[in-house]
Amino acid sequence: MDERRNILMDRYEIGRQLGQGNFAKVYYARNLTSGQAVAIKIIDKDKVTRVGLIVQIKREISIMRLVRHPNVLQLFEVMASKSKIYFVLEYAKGGELFNKISKGKFSEDVARRYFHQLISAVEYCHSRGVYHRDLKPENLLLDDNDNLKVSDFGLSALAESKRQDGLLHTTCGTPAYVAPEVLSRRGYDGSKADIWSCGVILFVLVAGYLPFHDPNLIELYRKISKAEYRCPRSFSVELKDLLFRMLDPDPSTRIPISRIKRSTWYRKPFELNPPKVKHDTARDKVCNGEATTSNSRECSNSEENQVLQNLPNMNAFDIISLSTGFDLSNLFEEKYGRKEERFTTRQPAETVFAKLHELAERLKLKIKKKDNGVLKLAAPKEGIKGFLELDAEIFELAPSFLLVELKKTNGDTIEYKKLVKDEIRPALKDMVWAWQSDRHQQQEQIMQGEQQQSPLPPGPPQQ
Ligand code: AMP
Fold first, then answer.
1. 0.70 exceeded by the pTM?
2. N or C: which end of the chain has fewer CB within 10 A?
């Protein structure tokens, strides 16, 4: 970072600190080209590498790029320097929702609006196979139209690492939002655990205090595991009933989102502070082909599913393999040239493995091992730097959307590149949706084209 002017990577001017988590500091920043306000979360790379989380974080970042919803804080891009990882995030101007509660609890009507937005975000993420697992007040932010923005969706690796660091009991302080099955460290269903946390959040919104609290941690655990709480008298019967079903200590009988949405309390009408400004972002257009306002609660599920089904028809720069946010080359590249090739595919993992096996047989590559979704391949003859070896690893970004990473683990880079170019790429042509390295080229070409035509004016911030 240029310390004097606080310019990051020639792209963002860093301003005041907005907050601090266990793992990161968050700063206000402005995109120097577009003028857009963003928040930049700066993470210490050493720390995450030390606890062995880099691969998990890499995977979760790619998942976050798939998650696009008006009530989920958007990750625009990820950058890295030698010692830091930078998450460039949508800026939530309104700050934390719970700063508002500290000034007074909400009426049920006001709480319902936020709750609708929370459930909409959570339902959307669950439909993509993404679970938050750490929903709590710090993760609920507001934009300048008073719309809820859930942050850190998909970044559970960072939450996990808090635990590995032993910080949960110190800095995070309270497990008050965590479901009993998570506390007891049994295997748990991420969606049910998130529903519990939403129940605690709903209680806090209307009561102004936590349902489970006790200065003694053991006693607090006991109360959570038995769902021992009392609602204030002012709570409506319908609200009590919904909370009772959400704060069910047995995850197997806990109410699912579909039934939360059919509950009497949830379905009561509300009309409060309609937003002044219409958000007209690429994401909104993506939802249904035309702009929707950011608090028109959701792209309906069928519309979203259509988006997934129509992935290849979307603006290529809007989605994962072609998005800047997915460019983690700084983070993971070798000093002398890229040793990884990544492509996305909509074929199932078995088909990808079968194709790789077929290719290996044809090229007489030895299949050394298939372990945890990694296929290890080795050339039969020694090259100039020993036997060429490569790993093929599959990551599931969404149920029908995979990322395949090919990585040289031994041998000469030029021999490897030749193998990829002459053999692997043509052989996989039919199953590849996009090669990530092609994105670099395409993006460079487009950026060059844009620069030649008309430099972007420093337009108004999007928010
Ligand atoms: P975190 O590390 O995500 O828990 O962030 C720490 C604090 O920084 C949060 O509790 C917020 O107060 C603030 N913060 C994080 N992200 C943003 C954002 N995108 N916009 C505004 N404030 C943020």
1. no
2. N
